[in-house]
Design goal:
single chain; 462 residues; alpha/beta; D-Maltodextrin-Binding Protein, domain 2; ten-stranded mixed beta sheet; two-stranded antiparallel sheet; 15 helices; 47% helix
Length: 462
């Protein structure tokens, strides 16, 4: 039950509600939690089973000033303007004087400008978007990630430079002859340094230089191996758009705008900024925010845009970890609007409700109610989701709820390059072995021929 007794100290004084005592005020309530919505279990304690922060503002005033307050749930549509100029939804209840309703519990300032009266601003809302939490992939090029691009460039350049210097020095030592030892030392020395191996047969001119490089490679290699373990076991998440500018650039993302009324669509259609016009080219519309969020959770190339407060309606369906959002929300907003309670044009109640709405809002009570309602919706959503453990939504939310620093086993895809080196190295080694065997065979044949020739000549001399 809505705890009116807990807010008895709110300074709603009698002059505020002097013209409300004994009256009956009837309100229309759309489904827009946490401000006004149909309560599944009647948590408001009233027969109408409507709850919400703005509902509680009027319910609190009714208890203070002794007037009857009736709230009717009228559906999801907060207000839609049709081509013929007629209105439907909760806003229609105050737009038309003969509707029998006195107030609309939630209305946007764009919706009612110069058409109905509005109490003081209760809260503000924005059009945002949400995308699925980034996935952690172990890419085949994970072995390259521990070092920056320029570090790799310097490592390769140093490898080539050391090899050339070593080759030149050995070439001079061997009497300017390109012997096998010259070729071998040209690439084996820098390879041994990079692999932090013991060094042998280093010319004096290269020893101190090689020792300095060996020390540097030991430092870089230690950091490389430590960082490589992190990239293989805790992969870096894939980048996702977090601003509308980034979403406009990520053309692989489909975008859906979900709204229960008309105003959001009008705002998107009238957007002229270059960023929003790019998004509009692939923008689709939906009247089901929960379905829109579900697609965003399950599809990593889908963005769901909507009014900020409408995500609360999905908390009761798509929550597993109550301390974590089910999607990653944008850092900026496409548009910001203001919400309040709307009245019939020239209503006799408007002056009283300016203070009735303003007092609990300025004291932070409305914000506290909103947070309490959101927490309650999350708990309900968690209980519902736990009863559906085999659904794709549950499995995805369970994956999202895991700590990001969990150590994952190394997968074959991340080590594909490493494993491909083994057969590749064996193949290259076999070719080198065949070539060397053929080469040494030719050398051996030449040596035998020369020896036999000398032996024959020696015998003939004898």
């Amino acid at each position: 039950m809505f705890p009116l007794q807990s807010v008895e100290n709110i300074p709603l004084v009698n002059p505020m509600g002097a013209n409300l005592r004994g009256r009956t005020i009837r309100a229309a309530s759309p489904h827009s939690p946490p401000y006004a919505f149909r309560s599944e279990v009647g948590s408001s304690g009233h027969p109408d089973s409507v709850d919400g922060s703005l509902y509680r503002v009027v319910a609190l005033a009714a208890s203070k000033f002794n007037f009857t307050f009736i709230a009717d749930y009228v559906g999801f549509d907060y207000g839609t303007l049709h081509p013929n100029g007629s209105w439907t939804g909760s806003y229609a209840k105050v737009h038309y004087p003969d509707s029998g309703y006195d107030i609309d519990l939630i209305v946007s300032n764009e919706l009612v400008w110069n058409q109905t009266d509005v109490a003081c601003i209760a809260t503000k809302i924005s059009i945002i978007f949400g995308v699925a939490h980034p996935q952690q992939h172990q890419h085949w090029y994970a072995f390259l990630l521990p070092l920056d691009r320029w570090v790799w460039v310097w490592v390769i350049v140093t490898f080539i430079f050391v090899g050339l210097v070593q080759g030149i020095v050995m070439y001079l030592i061997q009497g300017r002859k390109l012997k096998p030892i010259v070729l071998d030392s040209t690439w084996l020395l820098p390879l041994a340094i990079i692999l932090e191996q013991g060094l042998q047969d280093i010319p004096k001119g290269m020893r101190y230089f090689s020792l300095i490089l060996l020390f540097g490679c030991t430092v870089i290699g230690t950091g490389y191996k430590a960082t490589l373990r992190t990239h293989l076991m805790i992969p870096k998440p894939d980048p996702v758009p977090t601003t509308f500018a980034e979403l406009a650039e990520r053309t692989e993302y489909s975008v859906t705008f979900a709204d229960n009324g008309e105003i959001g669509k009008q705002i998107w259609n009238g957007a002229t900024d270059e960023v929003f016009t790019q998004i509009k080219q692939r923008l689709e519309y939906s009247d089901d925010p929960t379905d829109c969020y579900t697609n965003a959770i399950l599809n990593h190339n889908h963005a769901c845009s909507t009014w900020e407060h409408l995500k609360a309606a999905s908390l009761a369906e798509l929550t597993l970890n109550t301390t974590q959002d089910f999607v990653l929300w944008s850092k900026d907003a496409m548009h910001t609007s203001f919400l309040s309670i709307s009245f019939q044009w020239n209503s006799i109640y408007i002056d009283s409700f300016q203070l009735i709405v303003g007092t609990p809002t300025s004291m932070g009570l409305v914000m506290k109610w909103e947070q309490d309602i959101l927490n309650d919706l999350k708990q309900k959503g968690r209980q519902k989701m736990l009863r559906k453990p085999n659904t794709p939504e549950f499995k995805r939310l369970l994956e999202v709820s895991r700590p990001k620093d969990d150590v994952n086993p190394m997968k074959l895809g991340s080590l594909s390059v490493v494993f491909s080196i083994v057969p590749g190295g064996c193949f290259v080694s076999a070719l080198i072995f065949v070539c060397e065997k053929k080469r040494y065979s030719n050398i051996s044949n030449k040596t035998t021929t020369v020896t036999m020739h000398i032996h024959i000549n020696g015998s003939s001399l004898g």
